[in-house]
Amino acid sequence: CGFLKSCLPYNHMLSMYISNGQFEKVPAMIKELKSKTSPDIVTYNLWLTAFASGNDVEAAEKVYLKVKEADLSPDWVTYSVLTNLYSKTDNLEKAKLALKEMEKLVSKKNRVAFASLISLHGNLGDKDGVNLTWKKIKSSFKKMNDAEYLSMISAVVKLGEFEQAKGLYEEWESVSGTRDARIPNLILGEYMNRDEILLGDKFYERIVEKGINPSYSTWEILARGYLKRKDMERVVDCFGKAIDSVKKWTVNERLVKEVCKELEEQGDVKGAEKLMTILQKAGHVNTQLYNSLLRAYAKAGEMALIVEERMAKDNVELDDETKELIRLTSRMRVTEISSTIS
């Protein structure tokens, strides 16, 4: 009974709801908490986070006022959430004011706040703030951790300082033994964003040589880079490796559509069939995917064999477009790939 008069179990449930995106359950949990005990600053921060996730500035500000009315002291998390919310909603002056309040509360005792501080300065385009915070971390601690390098490299990449980012990466590589793929992924991603594919390839080789295991994001970054160059053989290969790297794949619908569209436009039947096999293994096949495969066959002027049987085996229904595409491709030539599939 005493335990239920503590905020801890309620805060745990609130955190779980927010992590799962179940924001509609937050008000009832807050109400129940208030009937048993008084919210603490962690409760209010979670409440703020729920409203910030929906970019609801007015509701978040009301929660902040409640903190003041409850005679509680906002902590650095309070101002971090508010700064991020104001930044996302283009309330830049309010964001800067909240960030200043946050800075007053950041110290060696709450080291985790420094990484957040760097990210928020970066989001506001404040190069000086980013670099000054980094200097403060370096003067306060003997060694920077991965979270701090991650925030710093991400911030300077966002600010267009790629040379500085590469220098920071080399520094991290020389001192860290964690082999956290998230950090080199930032550099790899920027190479691909800049369409510097060959340099990106060399950097990927360097990652592997250093014993860093590519993550799902590594493969997705490479796939997107090769997609820009329309190098579909490598795109599909990376796509398959990305899915193989995780126990359960959360479908990236946008990437699937972009890959399918390019395969269709190129009439790349071999690539489309390989993608189909990859997605079948991942348990993600549907009518739209089969229609995309058929459009690739139509573009190539080739006949797609036993499609209806394959769809039945995958428990996928035909729609009107499927039937029309089967009719259209049935007049086309049979190729080596068609024969192999049949």
Automatic annotation (TrEMBL):
<protein>
    <submittedName>
        <fullName>Pentatricopeptide repeat-containing protein, mitochondrial</fullName>
    </submittedName>
</protein>
<feature type="repeat" description="PPR">
    <location>
        <begin position="40"/>
        <end position="74"/>
    </location>
</feature>
<dbReference type="InterPro" id="IPR011990">
    <property type="entry name" value="TPR-like_helical_dom_sf"/>
</dbReference>
<dbReference type="GO" id="GO:0003729">
    <property type="term" value="F:mRNA binding"/>
</dbReference>
<dbReference type="InterPro" id="IPR002885">
    <property type="entry name" value="PPR_rpt"/>
</dbReference>
<keyword id="KW-0677">Repeat</keyword>
<dbReference type="Pfam" id="PF01535">
    <property type="entry name" value="PPR"/>
</dbReference>
<dbReference type="GO" id="GO:0005739">
    <property type="term" value="C:mitochondrion"/>
</dbReference>
<dbReference type="Pfam" id="PF13041">
    <property type="entry name" value="PPR_2"/>
</dbReference>
<comment type="similarity">
    <text>Belongs to the PPR family. P subfamily.</text>
</comment>
